[in-house]
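User: Can you predict the 3D structure for this chain?
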Amino acid sequence: MKTIGWKYTRFLLLGLVLSGVIQVLGCKDDTETDEVIPPEKPIEIDKTYFPENTQPLLDDLHKKTVDYFWNTGTDGGADPNTGMAFEGADRRGVVTSGGTGFGVMAIISGVERGWIDRGAAAERMLKLVHFLGKADRYHGAWSHWMNPSTGEALPWGGLKGGDLLESCLLMEGLLTAREYYDGANAIETEVRDSINSFYQTIEFDWFTNGQEYLHWSWYPAQNGQDEVFQLPIRGYNEAQIAYIFALASPDHGISTAIYKSGWLKNGHIKNPQTHYGYNLEIGPDKGGPMFLSHYSTLGMDPRKMEDQYTNYWEHVLNHVLINRHYCVYDAPTAHRYDRGVWGLTACYGSAANGYKARNPNNDDGTIAPTAALASFPFTPFYSMEWLVYMSKNYSRMNGKYGFYDAFSIKENWYANRYLAIDQGPIPVMIENYRTGFFWELFMTIPEIQTGLRKAEIYTPDYETGFHLAKVDAKSGCYEAMMHPDKKTYCIDFYLEDAGAIAFELDPMLEGETISLSAEKEYAAGSNTLAFELGDIIPNDTYTLVMKHSSGDITLKTRFH
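Assistant: Here is the predicted structure, written as structure tokens:
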């Protein structure tokens, strides 16, 4: 343990200097002018990422994105007659299934934060289930897009039919609402009963078409062509939630064998790869667009998901870090990305580029804010770094309902409009970061528990240590900031067995060791170490030490 640090040495030297000055002054002639020793300049603390600065930014973004799904005005994202979400605020003749599911969760977040009255939100839900009960369904599945006036399916790819995945993204929000609106009054009771009926009548087994996997969509015979099942859902993508729902369906379920053949591709989901120092065990090269990892984990908690192929927290976290690392360090210079400009996923594009699913292998210089902002639970500092940078330097892209859907600095272009399916993950994931609310609620849903069990996905047994932290491959540090609401640094750790643990910080340069927590008993499993700034110097690097009976466990950390 270091006993004399730079702070102490600095004061000692200053004392010696002052002592020498006093001696010299004592020998001077009285006619000489005394030399004035200026006081030492105090250390300037960078408070950019302190809660007094980050909380207002996060509150503003959180509320704006909730408002998008609550506001039924002429520029709002919600249809006043049905409660459905418009495809975009500028596309008011089209409502969308998946975006509505995300919006249902966003509104619940607004209720939890006191921005929306619970009774009014329940009434909106009643209006929504009334519409969905009358809308076109195809073997229980709604279409991707619908006419808000009639509920009639609108063409997707030129055909009208049932979109299983979009229906499951909608159901992700509906089942969350069923659990949340648990009151005994007539409105909340009808909401729950309607949602139960919807879920039980989705014919997941129909969407296999007799194959060993689910299909994305089914279109009945139309326009002179026969019925068609399209897009087998096989391998890692955003559709894992559809398989979990299908496994748990009481009357139209699928078998575990179909899950293994479909989602897991009989083991061929495995695709080990390493990029920039981050490992992926499954999924496309470099992880693909970020929505692949976001959509299903709006509700399902990846911290509690592991199968024989991957730990899902590790997968999503590394997916985000690869996406960011590519943008910040490896993308073409002409794109003009940097530490505050990153995030590739599906989004609008300029007239020259259009809508596409952008990723490190398909990058035209277009950034989608949802990629970084919906990653808050996984990379809170890097997501906040994005928010701070963009708020300071590109405030024109931050509109009434948050940041517009996409922008390209290279092309001096931004979308100036919103897209529901990009907007929705932002408030939901911000809530998961701030409180864990949706993850905690969703994982208690009986159908989710059944689906995960049948999929042979279990809560991981982590090794003792800082199990959720990931050291940045470039800096070699875990980047930590104070939680905006809790106003403390919060670092999760895991114990295989209960025991007495102490924590301390060892400065990488000169300085005294800082005790964070005296030895005390912690339970086996997940725990959180919370501590204030204290003697920590922001932007300095320390070694965080867990004093464990089997030996010290360390995490190189930079505190912001």
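The radius of gyration is 27 Å. The mean pLDDT is 92.
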